[in-house]
Amino acid sequence: MPGDSRRVPGPQDSRSPHWYGKQPPQHQETGTRQDGRADHDLRPVYLHAGVVSQATGSAYIELGQTKVIAAVYGPREIARREEFTMKGRLCCELKFATFSCRRRRQHMQDNQEKDVSLIVLQALEPAVCLVSGGFLLITKQGMCVADLVQIYLSLIRSVLVYGHVLLDRFPKSQVDVYITVLQDDGSALAAAITCAAAGLADAGVMMYDVVTGCSVRQCGDRQLLDPSGSEESSQEGEGVEDHGMVTVGLLPSLNQVSALVLDGHLPQTTAVQLVSLVSALVLDGHLQQQTAVQAVKTCIGGCQGIYPILKDCLVKSTRRKVPAVDPTLIRTSIDGQNGRT
Amino acid sequence: MSSTLGVLSDAERLFIVHGVQDDLRSDGRACEDYRHVEVETDVVSNTSGSARLRLGNTDILVGVKAEMGEPDPGRPKEGKLEFFVDCSANASPEFEGRGGEELAIEVSNALQRIFSSKSTLDLTALCIIPAGQCWVLFVDVLVLECGGNLFDAVSLAVKAALFSTRLPTVIVTADDEGQQEIELSDDPYDVKRLDVDNVPLIVTLSKV
User: Fold this and answer.
1) Phi and psi of A250, rounded to 5°?
2) In a 3-state reduction of DSSP, which class is residue A100?
3) The CATH homologous superfamily of the domain defined by B35-193
4) Residue ranges of domains in chain B
5) Beta-carbon neighbour count of residue B202 at 10 Å?
6) How is domain A37-321 classified at the CATH fold level?
7) How far from each other are the two terminal CA atoms of chain B, in whole angstroms?
8) Using a CB-CB distance cutoff of 8 angstroms, which residues of chain A are in contact with residue B184?
C-alpha cells in the first residue's frame, strides 16, 4: 500500500484529548432520541445543487450535522492509458476530510473510503446504466457465501435488465464524481449517495432516475431512521439479538432498490427473505414482516421522504441556470420587430 | 490553470494592459482591489476550530484539530503546529490522485514559513507538561474550489480558524508517586483561546 509521502511514517504520536475527559452519557430514555426526534423521523435536510462553479455539476447536502459535497466532471475523454471502450464509464472517488470525524483521519484514501466509494458508485450505476441487473448487496457479518451467490443468481433473474443504454451515449468517455465528506455525524454513506445523484443530475448526465439514500440503525426492536453519529457508534443493543445498520439506495420513481448495505448482526436476514423482498419491490408490494425486511422498508420510506427535497433542489438549480423567459419581453421584442418592418 | 486561458490575441492583451494603465481590470476592479471576501467560523463541529472562506470563486475550508502529544526534545516547552493542504479533486479534476500534490506542498510550505517565526504564534502557550505533554494543532486546509489567489485565501482562512480554536482547559495533578495525571475540564465553555494578533497574512501581487 502506498504511504503518505508527505509525512514521516511512524506510529501516531498524538491522541485526541477526548480520552482524558469523561465520556458523555450515551444511554437515552427509551422512546425518545437525543435530538428529540421520533424513531422514524429524518433530520432536517438541506440540499443545494450547483455549488462548485468549475464543475459540470455539483451538489452540497446537510443531513443535520452531516455535510457532504460532490462535484461531477465530464463526460470527458478517457485518459489514453485506459483501454478502448464503446460505452461510457462512471468513476467515483469519496474522501473523508481529515477533520470530518471525531478521530483525525489520514490524507491518503484508506480502505474504508475505497469501500464506500465503490458502494456509492454501484448505487449510482443502475440509474446511469444498468449492469447485469444493477443491484448491489454487501453483507459484513452473519451471512455465508452460498447465500450471497443464491441472491445474485435470483437477482439477475428477477430484476429488470436495462442494459448499458445511457452510458452508450458517451462512447470513449468518462464521468467523474468526486465526493468529500466535510463532517460526519452519521448516515454519511446515505448522504453521499443522495449528494452524488444530485450532482449528476445537475451536470445533465442522462439518468433513469435520481438515486436517494437513507440509513436505518437497528437497536434491538427499535429502528432509528437517519441515525446521528452518536446513535451510529452507540453500543446500545449490542447484546440483544438484532443490531446493525441498513443503508438503502432507491430509485424513487421506479421504486427499485439500487444498493442495499447490511452491517451488523440481523439474524432473521436470511437469503430467502431478502430475495423475496427484492423481487417484491420490483414486481409489486407483498413484503414479509420480518426485522430486516422491516428495516429495509423503513429505509425506503426515508428515501421517499428525501425525494421531494431532491426534486425541489434540482428545479431550483435549473431555474438559476436557465432564467425563465418573461412573456412580456418576448412580446416587446416582437412588437419592436413589427415596428421596424 | 487551463492552457486555453493562456492564449490571448494581441488585441486582448492590449486591452488588459491599457486597462491596468488606467487602474481598471476586466472584472471592473481597480488594480489594488480584492474580490469580495466571505468568512465564516465554527462550521465543523468535530474540530477545535474551523473556518470557511470564499474569495471570489476560491473556496477554502480549514479545520483545526487539537490533539495531545509529546513535544520535540529540542523544544520541550513548546507545542506543535502541523499544516496540511489538500487540493481535493472537487476543486479541479487535475487534482485527482497525486495531481494536486505539488501545489499543496507549495502552499503548506508557505504556511510553515510564515509560522516559523517565534513572534507569530506563542507556541509555549500550547505546553501542558514541559517535556511531557503538549498540544499538537493539526491545521488541515481543504481547497473546495480553486479560483485564483490561493495563498492569500489560505492564509486568511487559517488565521480565522486559529482565531476560533478553543482548547479545553487541562488540569494536571500529581499523585503520591510524583506521577502526573491529566484531566480534562468537563465544562465545554471552560476553554482557552489562542492569541492570533500577530499571525501574518499573505498578499500576492501579479505584475502586468
Assistant:
1) -125, 140
2) coil
3) GHMP Kinase, N-terminal domain (3.30.230.70)
4) 35-193
5) 18
6) Ribosomal Protein S5; domain 2 (3.30.230)
7) 17
8) 17-18, 20-22
Give the count of Cβ contacts less than 8 A between chain A and B: 120
Residue B118 DSSP one-character state: T
pLDDT in tens, chain A (341 residues): 344 555 555 556 777 777 777 665 555 556 678 888 888 888 999 999 999 888 999 999 999 999 999 999 878 877 766 677 777 788 899 999 989 888 888 777 888 888 889 889 888 887 775 333 334 444 444 333 334 444 444 444 333 333 333 566 677 788 889 999 999 998 999 999 999 999 999 988 888 888 899 988 877 777 888 989 888 877 665 555 566 788 888 888 877 778 878 776 665 544 445 444 444 443 333 333 456 677 778 888 888 889 999 999 998 888 888 776 666 665 555 555 554 43
Could you tell me if B170 and B82 are in contact, meaning their C-beta atoms sit under 8 angstroms apart?
no
Cell 502529544 maps to which residue?
B69
- What DSSP designation does B80 have? E
**Cell digits of residue B174:** 500529581
CB A319 within 8 A of CB A206: no
Q: Which residues of A touch B90 (CB under 8 A)?
A: 52, 55, 58, 69-71, 178, 180
Omega into A75 within 30° of 0, i.e. cis?
yes
Task: Kindly list the distances between the CA atom of residue A196 and the CA atoms of A70, A119, B136, in Å, as whole numbers in the listed order.
Answer: 6, 12, 35
